[in-house]
Amino acid sequence: AQSVTQPDIHITVSEGASLELRCNYSYGATPYLFWYVQSPGQGLQLLLKYFSGDTLVQGIKGFEAEFKRSQSSFNLRKPSVHWSDAAEYFCAVAPEGQNFVFGPGTRLSVLP
Amino acid sequence: DGGITQSPKYLFRKEGQNVTLSCEQNLNHDAMYWYRQDPGQGLRLIYYSQIVNDFQKGDIAEGYSVSREKKESFPLTVTSAQKNPTAFYLCASRSRRETQYFGPGTRLLVL
Questions:
Q1: Which of B42, B97, B103 sits opposite A102 (nearest CB)?
Q2: What residue in B sits closest to A96 (Cα-Cα)?
Q3: What count of other Cβ atoms lies within 10 Å of the Cβ of residue A24?
Q4: Mean of the pLDDT values across residues B62-75?
Q5: Which of B102, B106, B108 is the best mutation test for A, with the most CBs of A within 10 A?
Q6: What is the DSSP letter of B91?
C-alpha cells in the first residue's frame, strides 16, 4: 500500500534560520508529489508540486523542494524562515489517476 | 475569483440530528473530495466523486452520506449514525493536472 511518512511531528526554528522538512513515500513508481501548508483553522494551500522533469521545484513563499528518486524523498526547504511560516505542513503523493495519500503533517514553530 | 467555498464555517449538531455541510466550486473541476481532520492528525478521506451523479466511499464513509447532482456542488451529510462527528471537515476539488485545491473548512461541534 502507498504510504507517506513525515518523520518530524514538530520542528522549532529561529526566525531567519534555514528549514528542511522531510517527506518519504512508499510506492512502486514515481507518483505526483505535493507540499501543502495549513494555518490554524484554515484550509490547505498548495506550496508546490512535482510531476516530472527538473527535480528541484520552486514554489510560493520562497519554498523549494527536491525530489530524490533513489531515496523516495521529497523534502521541503526554505533558506530563511519568517515568523509567518509557522503552520502545519503536509506532504502528499498521488499516483496518476488515483487518490491522494497525505502524510501526518509536521508542525513548524518559529522563535523570534 | 475562482475557488472553493464551504459553509458554514462553524456548525453545531445536537444528539440524533443530521447536518449538512456545503461545498461549492467554480473551478470547473470534475472530481471533488471530502476529508476529515482531527486535532494533530492528517487528512482522512470520507467520500469522493469523479463525475456528476457518481461517488465512491473513502476510508471512513460510515455515518456520512453525499450527493453530486451538479458539477459545482458536493454536499456532505453527517448522519446521526456518526457517533464521533466533532472534527474539521475539508472539501477539495481536483484539476485535470492532478492537483487538489481546498476550501477553507467547516468545524463541526456537538452540543
A1: B42
A2: B98
A3: 18
A4: 97
A5: B102
A6: E
- In single-letter form, the type of residue at position B8 comes to P
For residues B93 and B100, is the Cβ–Cβ distance under 8 A? yes
| Separation of alpha carbons A5 and B31, rounded Å | 26
What is the bridge-based pairing of β-strands B87-94 and B31-37? antiparallel
Question: Would you give the DSSP letter of residue B43?
Answer: E
Name the pLDDT band for B1 (thresholds 50, 70, 90): low
CB B109 within 8 A of CB B86: yes
Tell me the pLDDT tens digit for each residue of A29-61.
778 999 999 999 999 999 999 998 899 999 999
Three-class SS state of A8:
coil
Q: What is the β-pairing status of strands A32-38 and A44-50?
A: antiparallel
Residue B49 CB burial class (10 angstroms; 0-12, 13-18, ≥19)? buried
Closest by Cα among B26, B70, B25, B64 to B46? B64
Which residues does residue A23 pair with via DSSP β-bridges, in sequence order?
Answer: none
**Hunting for cell 527536491 — which residue is that?**
A66
Q: Does residue A27 surpass a pLDDT of 90?
A: no
